[in-house]
């Protein structure tokens, strides 16, 4: 099977490309990696030439504008990149009978439920910020494009993603802890925002499982097991790293930002074809930690300029 991946240099895209390289159904040629130079969300009509040139049988659309605060400041840009570009892509793939896996987010839900349960795939959506609104519109437009087509559309929602190349919550909270220690202050971490910390490698492998099973159609919630607040996540990270960090728990209302995230961003995982759920989030974090610590050590050794590099 010829599989193409948009956003192939992004956090999730690079994990998906790596997982597909080990998948038996992609053959010796492996996946087709489309980075931003190949498929730009600001110029989505280029997808027609890409599809005709590379002739994939399935496309995994991981490219998105995921700067949640940036989306709040520029909602029209968010809509253009996360909804209109999806519409162009989905119309093009559906017309060619190409399966599409579209990556979405927990932020299509409002986060106001109080029953302690995660959002299921068929629960009512109600985004409360421009990022979530743009991603939901992308879901709706992709669904419309595939209605009545024989090709399959899979929508994979995930949450609180972390993983290489860094600049994720674990790397940011480690850096913040160092600054707090230097200042002689406790580290302030939000304690009333809850989600499912999810490792990109695990999501990528789940997507490959869905694609390889032939059961990719429909909505899928793909997250690591368990629930954590931001403060709980930080404490587990420090515990695993052997760091003694004083944490001051604060409400999200005291942390000024452009966007309003859902307070309860927990997704109820949908069953995977093999029947095995993703592992618990602390176990996944333990796998990532050595890579994260090596990256931080390398960045410190290289000096301040290295920490400003972008993927």
Please, could you describe this protein's structure?
There is one protein chain. With 311 residues, the protein is of the alpha/beta class. It has 2 domains: 3-161 and 196-221, NAD(P)-binding Rossmann-like Domain (Rossmann fold); 165-194 and 227-264 and 276-301, UDP-galactose 4-epimerase, domain 1 (Alpha-Beta Complex). The protein has helices spanning 11-21, 47-54, 68-73, 75-95, 130-146, 169-183, 200-213, 230-241, 281-302, 304-307; strands spanning 3-6, 32-34, 58-61, 99-105, 153-158, 161-162, 187-190, 194-195, 198-199, 218-221, 228-229, 247-250. Helix 5 links the parallel strand 4 and strand 5 (153-158). Helix 1 crosses helix 7 (200-213), helix 4 runs parallel beside helix 5 and helix 8 packs across helix 9. The chain starts with a strand and ends with a helix.
Short description:
With 311 residues, the protein is α/β, with parallel strands linked by helices. 42% of the residues lie in helices and 14% in strands.
